[in-house]
Amino acid sequence: MASPPLLLLQDIQISFGGPPLLRGAELAVAPGERLALIGRNGSGKSTLLKVAAGFAQPDAGTRFLQPGTTLRYLPQEPDLSAFATTLAYVEDGLGPTDDPYRARYLLEQLGLAGDEDPRRLSGGEARRAALARCLAPDPDILLLDEPTNHLDLPAIAWLEGELSRLRAALVLISHDRRFLESLSRAMVWIDRGATRRLEKGFAHFETWRDEVLEQEELEAHKLGRQILREEDWLRYGVTARRKRNVRRLGELHALRQRRRDRVHTPGTAKLAAFDSGGSGTLVIAATGISKSYDGTPIVRDFSTRILRGDRVGIVGPNGAGKTTLLNMLTGALAPDAGEVALGTGLAMITLDQKRESLDPALSLADTLSGGRGDQVLVGGQTRHVLGYMKDFLFGPEQARMPVGALSGGERGRLLLARALARPSNLLVLDEPTNDLDLETLDLLQELLADYPGTAIVVSHDRDFLDRVATSLIVAEGDGRWQDYAGGYSDMLAQRGRGVEAKAVPATATAADRARAGRRDDAVPAATALPATGRQRLSFKQRHALQTLPARMDALRTRIAALGVELADPALYARDRAGFARRSEELASAETELAAAEEEWLELEILREEIEGGA
Questions:
Q1: How many of the other CB atoms lie within 10 Å of CB of 365?
Q2: Number of alpha carbons in the 13 Å side-chain half-sphere of residue 410
Q3: What's the predicted TM-score (pTM) here?
Q4: Do 376 and 421 contact (CB within 8 A), yes or no?
Q5: β-sheet with 186-191: strand ranges across
Q6: Domains in the chain, CATH or no CATH each
Q7: pLDDT digits (tens, 9 = 90+) for 469-485
Q8: 586: which residues sit within 8 A by CB, 6+ positions away?
Q9: Which among 88, 151, 77 has a CA at the least distance from the CA of 114?
Q10: What are the φ and ψ backbone dihedral angles of 453, each rounded to 5 degrees?
Q11: Interatomic CA distance for residues 328 and 289, integer angstroms
Q12: Regarding predicted confidence, which is higher, 311 or 250?
């Protein structure tokens, strides 16, 4: 027999003056459950979580919390203003029987010392303090709204391991697919104001969603056909008894009303980047670049080449210097030593992670049009601003809304809308996934896959990096950076470990260690790879091993055919240009074959060494 729920929401109805946001939503949380709360931006996820936490009152419906149940809630924007320090804020959430030392432990694990002034905290630091406050009392239910936002990879990995060990029931809102897949065991999907539940983890969400939407389309099609049949009967059917006709006419009206009342599937954002024309083959060449601040090396003797069409991810813990490296590579910051050469014909657009380029006082329409009325220049052509807003899921009623009133996800979409309106061949995206819903993330991934230019992305989203990146630049510590082929999972296989928190000197104080976010174990046991140092072939290396033999055979065949043609003594006399062309092609093919054979031999030796040491 299933355990009775600790928390139960029934028939929750909420409207903010317009169409209903939630209509009959329900949520049941049993002891130890792991629920992912899913829905697009603006669907009411955060609102339902606030109702569950008791911080918002619905227009109708009931909330029941089992007596004696302890519940902790992480809002998207925690308020620490009433406390003198972050430690005081976290300790205020402890109960009489809770361990007071856990507050300091959690703050240190999350990169805070405890003596920070809440008035001077960044949004990410405030979120870390709020996480510590939620986790400190060992609650029965944890309601977490975007817990991974603004956290770096080591902090996300630590949080994932910490939550997996808790006995508390979890309700999670997150855009981090890997985080949800790891922690969720069931899903509640908010779709057009209603909730649907599936007793499977997030890995099954997309298949489930597509099945539900396909079934709805089929039912809508059947309803339309039934209405057409009834209308045809009404126009051309043989007149029968009056009562029967009145009944069927009433049924037709009811069918039409069902179609009118049907809540239609919401639109999908239309993301498109406009190509400004091809850049040169070489986009960025960095040679021996270095940068230090106050004697601390941020980048040390780093070299890389980025070619047209590359999708480069920059990965590292907070404080490693990702944005500094990005600015040097794009020419926004000069290196202390070394040289950065930018290719020809570059048209670059940048998306900043802090949304600082948005003026909160400007309206949404003025932000897109630049204050030039109701027209916006998109890909060199003018469009009405309301039509372009619709592509990014903004309604006409939001046109005069100040940017400061938008949610985090809406501000992210607005930045994308403004950036993608300009033609470009180099996209520079600093934390583009923050606050975006899963559907918009999918579209952004598709856009980057189809983008004809080059993209450089700073991100802590492991799934996003796996889907998008062709190579990663990873912080190795002490200002050293290293290139890895492939996405995040490929980097793990090659490197043998994940991204560690930023290191601090051994002489540093405990507060310095906390501020740097260092942990004694560096990588959580839940996510660290075995410390054997054993290598594995990357995806690119495995692919090369599989394809090189066929390529070498094709080259040998071509070389043999060219040799036969060139052996014809009459060829030179009748076609000197053809003889010269075949000679050059033969030399090129022989060079290519030699390089392919050498590459295959090196990879085969590496494979045998790895398998022999397994």
A1: 21
A2: 20
A3: 0.66
A4: yes
A5: 71-74, 141-145, 169-173, 34-38, 186-191, 194-198
A6: 7-70+139-206 (3.40.50.300), 276-347+425-499 (3.40.50.300), 355-422 (no CATH), 539-612 (1.10.287)
A7: 999 999 998 899 999 99
A8: 559, 562, 563, 566
A9: 88
A10: -95, -150
A11: 8
A12: 311
Please state at what angle helix 123-135 crosses helix 101-109, rounded to 10 degrees: 140
373 against 23, higher pLDDT: 23
pLDDT in tens, 574-611: 888 888 888 888 888 888 888 888 787 777 777 777 76
Compute the residue count for the chain.
Answer: 614
Contact 51, 58 (CB under 8 A): yes
- Residue 402 has what DSSP assignment? B
- The residue behind tokens 């991934």 is 445
Structure tokens at 397: 């009623």
**H helix intervals, 385-477:** 385-391, 408-420, 438-450, 462-468
Q: Give the model's pLDDT for residue 513.
A: 42
pLDDT tens per residue across span 549-579: 888 888 888 888 888 887 777 777 788 888 8
Average pLDDT rounded to a whole number, residues 500-521: 44
The helix/strand/coil state of 269 is coil
Would you say residue 516 has pLDDT above 50? no
Tokens 């598709």, located at residue = 446
Do the bridges between strand 34-38 and strand 22-29 make them parallel or antiparallel, or are there none, so unpaired?
unpaired
Asked whether residue 236 carries a pLDDT value surpassing 70, the answer given is no
Beta-bridge partners for 312 = 456, 471
179-222 confidence digits (pLDDT tens)? 999 999 999 999 888 899 999 999 888 888 888 777 777 776 66
Q: DSSP E strands: which ranges in 345-425?
A: 348-351, 375-378, 381-384
Instruction: Encode 281-335 in three state secondary structure.
Output: CEEEEEEEEEEEECCEEEEEEEEEEEECCCEEEEECCCCCCHHHHHHHHCCCCCC
